[in-house]
Amino acid sequence: MLSQEVLLKQRAEILHALCSSGSSEHLERVVDMLLAQGELGWEDYQNVLVPGRTLYCNARQLLDLVYTKGAESCGLFFAAVKQVLPEAQGAGLFSSEFPSSSDDREKPQRTFTEALLTQRPSLISKLQGCLDGVLAALVESGHFSSSDCDGVQLPIHTPSQQARRLLDHVRSKGESAAAVVLQYVEHTQESRPNLEETSPTLNKEFVKYRKKLSSSVSAQSRFLSTYGGTSHMPLDDIYTDLHLELPNSSGDDYKSFDFEDIFGPVGTVNEDADTVLVSGEAGSGKSTWLQRLHLLWAQGVGLQNFVLLFPFSCRRLNSEQRDLSVKELLFQHCCWPDREQEEIFQFILDHPNLVLFTFDGLDELKQNLVDEHIICCPNQQAPVHVLLFNLIQGSLMKGVRKVVTSRPEAVGPGLKKHLQKEVHLKGFSPSGINCFVRKHHNDPNEAAKVLESLQANTALLGLCHIPVLCWIVSQCHKELLGCGEGSLQTVTDVYLMILQHFFQHHSTFKGAVGVNWLQQNLGTVLRLGQLALEGILNSSYVFSVTDLETCSLTESDICMGFLIQTKNMSLVHSICYEFLHITMQCFFAAIYTILSSNTGRSVIPKLFELHEMKKRSLSSACFYLPCANEHTISEDHSTTAESPNLQITATFASGLLSQRYRKLWFHCSSSVLLEKKAKQAAKCLSKGMQQHFKSIPQPVQGEKKSMHAMPEFVWLIKCIYEMQETRIAKDAMSKLEVDHLKLTYCNIGPVECTALAFVLQHLKNPVGIQLDNNSVGDVGVEQLLPCMHVCNSLYLRNNNITDESIRKLIDKVIHLDNFRKIALFNNRLTDACTQHFSYLLKTKQNFLSLRLGNNNITAEGAKQLAEGLKFNNSLQYLGLWGNKIGDEGAKALASALQNGNSIVWISLVGNGVGSAGAIALSNIIRNSTSLEELWLTENCITRTGVESLTQALKHNDHVKSVWLKNNDLSSAEVEKLQKTESRLVF
Ligand code: ADP
Fold this sequence. Notes:
By secondary structure, the chain is an alpha/beta fold. It is built from 49 helices and 22 strands. Strands 12-13-14-15-16-17-18-19-20-21-22 form an 11-stranded parallel β-sheet, with no helix packed on it. The chain has a 6-stranded mixed β-sheet with strand order 1-8-2-7-5-3, with helices on both faces. Helix 2 packs across helix 5, helix 41 packs parallel to helix 42 and helix 42 packs parallel to helix 43. The longest helix is centred in the C-terminal third of the chain and has 24 residues. The two termini are about 60 Å apart. About 5% of the residues have low confidence. The structure holds adenosine-5'-diphosphate. The site of adenosine-5'-diphosphate has 19 residues, from helix 17 and helix 26.
C-alpha cells in the first residue's frame, strides 16, 4: 500500500498513538526528526507546533502537511513515528514496511547551524543532561543574557522541551553560538568513560576481565528465568515495558521512566546518596526489570557510563555464611579476575563513579540491616548483611552507584534516609498487557483470543497488571479459553489454574474415573506445600537436596516444574532449588496450611495476625526482616516470619477455604477440619476489621467521621474478596460507621479496586471514598463501579486515569442519587471526556462539585462543559486549575454560569486566561447571588480585565474574594487597583 494511503487509512490510530498519553513529547520528537531530515522547514515547524492549540490539532496539522508533501514524506513520517513510539503503543500500528529512520542525517554539514539542525534529535537527548552547563557557556561567551536563560528554562517545559527551546534560540543567535553548543556537547560526551583514557592501570587484563564479567552477566540475563527453563524465552523477545512511578508523582511523571533516568536528577531526594530503590509488590516485575538492566549493559546498548556492573541476588547472598571483604564479595560472587586481582580492585576503588552494583530482592535477606556496625575499609571482612548495609548507606565504596529492589513494606526509614531516590514499579500498563500477550503467543489469533477473553472479564484484566499473573494467564491460555467467561475472578483462581496446568502438562495417564486432578497429585502437592511453608516461616527461599529429602520430595515431584534449579554460592557445585516465584511458594504454603492436619490450631490465626502495629514499634529499624527458627509460627514471633509473605499466604488461604472450592478438596482433606479452618479464617478477618475500626478517632464536633485506612486494611479486604462470600463481606461492613473512607497512598491498583468494590458495596450508609495518589487507572475505575451506590463523593486525584473510563463512570453514577462530588485532579483527561461531564451536569440536578484541575482541558473542553452548565442548577464548586481553557474557554463558562445561582467557588488558576476572559467572567460576578470566590491566579489578565472585575464587584456584595496573583500587572498597577477594591487579592 502507498504510504499516503496508509496515512489516510490509519489516521485515527496514528493520532491516538501520538496524542493519547496527553504529552506532546512523541509529536515533538517526530517533528524534530523531520526537521533534521529537511522534510519540514522552519515555517512548517511553527505551523505544526502552535502553543496553546490542542495536541490533537497540532498532530492533525502535521498529518495534513506530510500528506500534501507526498509519498516520500509520508514514508519518512512513518519511520519517525515507529522510532518514537514505545513498543507497546506502536505494536500493530504499522507493518515492517517502513524502515526505522536514523536519528541524524548522515550527509556532511557545512556550517554549525546546519549541524545543529541535522543533529537535532540526538542533540535534544544529549542536552538534557547538561542544559545548565551549556547555558553557562553561552552566557560566558556573551551569546545569551540571563533572560534568554530564563526563557529556555521555564519550569512549565519538560527537559526535552527546554532543550528544543535552547536550540531554537541558539539558531537565531548565529554561527558562533551554535559552535559553542556543539563544542560543549562534544566535550561532555568525550568526558564519558573511555576505558583506554580514564585509567592508566587499564591494561589488557582489565579489558579481559570486563569482557568476562559482561559475558557472565549476559549469560545470566539472556533468558527469562521463569518456567524452570522448560521454555527458553529470550528476554529480548518477551520483555515488555513496565510502569515506573515516583512517589508523590505529578502528572508528568507518568512518562515512562527510562533505564537511564534511574540515575538522573528526576525524583532525587538526597543528592549525597548513591542508592536507588526500585520497590514493587511480589510479581510486579522487579527481578525482570533488573535483569533487563543487566542485559542492556552487557549488550553494550545501555548504561555505558558504567564500566563494570556487579549483579547480586539477596536470595543467594543468604547462603553466604562467611565474613567477606568487598573484594571477595565482588570477585567470588560475581566474576573472578584470572589475573591482576589487586590492580582491577584498585581500579574499582579509584573510579567508583564507573561502577554499578545491583542487589535484587533486599526483602529476602535473612538478617536485619541495622545501623550498628559501620565499616569504611574495603579490605575489612564482615558478614554479608553488614557489608550490604554499609554499601547501601555509602560508608563503604562511596560513589559506586547501587540499584536495589525490594517490596515496599520491607524498607524502613533507617534505610530510606540513605536513598538517592525511590521509584515504584507498578507492573504493566493496559497497553503493556496487550503487548506482553502478543509477544508471548507466536500465533496472533491465539493472542487475540486471550486478549478478547481478558476484555470480557475485567476482574481478570485487572489482575493482569501484575506481570506474574499476566504470565500465568498467557501460559494457561487453553484453560483460560476453555473455562468460560468470567469464571476466573481471584488470584487464587489463577494460581489453581496454573497448578492444574502443570499437572496436566506432565501427566501421561488419565486418572481413574471420578478422581480429580488434585486428588491424583495430592502427595506431590502436600510435599511441596510442606517445603514451601517451612521456607516461608524460616525466610528460606533456596532449598538444598537435604531440605527436599526432609519433606520426602521425590524426583518426579521435582520434575513437575514448580521448583527450579539454582546455584548456591557457598557450596560450590551443589544443586539447590527454589520455587518458580515467591508467590508460588506462598500458594503451596497456603494449600498445605488448609489441607494438612499437621499444622496445629494456631496456624490460621497467626497467618492473619496484623503486623502493622508491631512493625510500628520497630520503626527505627532500617529493614523489617524475619528471624523465625521454629517450624511453627512461634508466639514471640514479633514482626518475624516476613509479614508480606505471610500476608500473601493468608490471602491464598482465604481463597482456598472459600465454599466454592469445597468440592475440589472433597477427597483430599476432612471436611470437618476444612470447615473449622474456614470459620477460623472468617473470624480472624472480622476481628482484624474490628481492630481497624476501633482505631478510628471520634470526630471533632461538626466534622465528619473519617477513617484513614492502613495498608493492612486493604489486605484484609483482599482476603475477604478471595473468599467470594457475600456474607463475610456484609459482616465486615456492618460495623463500619464512617462518613469518609480515606485510602490515599495505599498502593491501590485495579486488583485492589475489584476487592474494595466487592466489600464496600455492603456499606450501610453512603460515604466519601478518597483514593487519591494510588494507581487506580481506567481498569480500576471500572472495577469500582459496583460500589458507587454507596459513594457520595469520589476522590481520584493523581491516579493515571484517562478519558476512556470517564464515560463508563458517568453512565453509572448519573442515576445514583447519593453521588454528588467528584475530584479528578492531576490525571490524564482531555477534551474528549468533557462531553460526558456535560451530560452529567445537564442530567443530575443535585450534583455539587466537579474538580478537573491539572488535566489537559482546552477551550473546546470548556465549551462542552459550558453546554452542561447552562442547564444545571446545583453545581457549587468548579475546579479547572492548571488546564488550558484560555479566553475562549473562560467566555464560554462565563456565559453559561452568569445566570445560574448555585455556583459558590470557581477556580481557573493557570489557564492562560487574559483580559477578554476576565471581562466575560465579570458577568458572573455582576449577576450571581451565590458566588463567593473566584480564583484567577497565574493567568495573563491585564489592567483592563481587572477594571472590569472591579466594576462588577460594585454590584455584588456576596463575593468574598477574587484572586489575581501573578497576572500581567505592574506593581504600580497592582497598588492602584488594590485601593479601588479590597476583595481583589494580588
Ligand atoms: P518480582 O521480582 O517483582 O517478584 P518478577 O520480575 O520475578 O517479579 O516477575 C515475575 C514474572 O512476571 C516473570 O518471571 C515474568 O514471567 C513476568 N514479567 C515480569 N516483568 C516482566 C516484563 N517486564 N516483561 C515480561 N515479563 C515480565
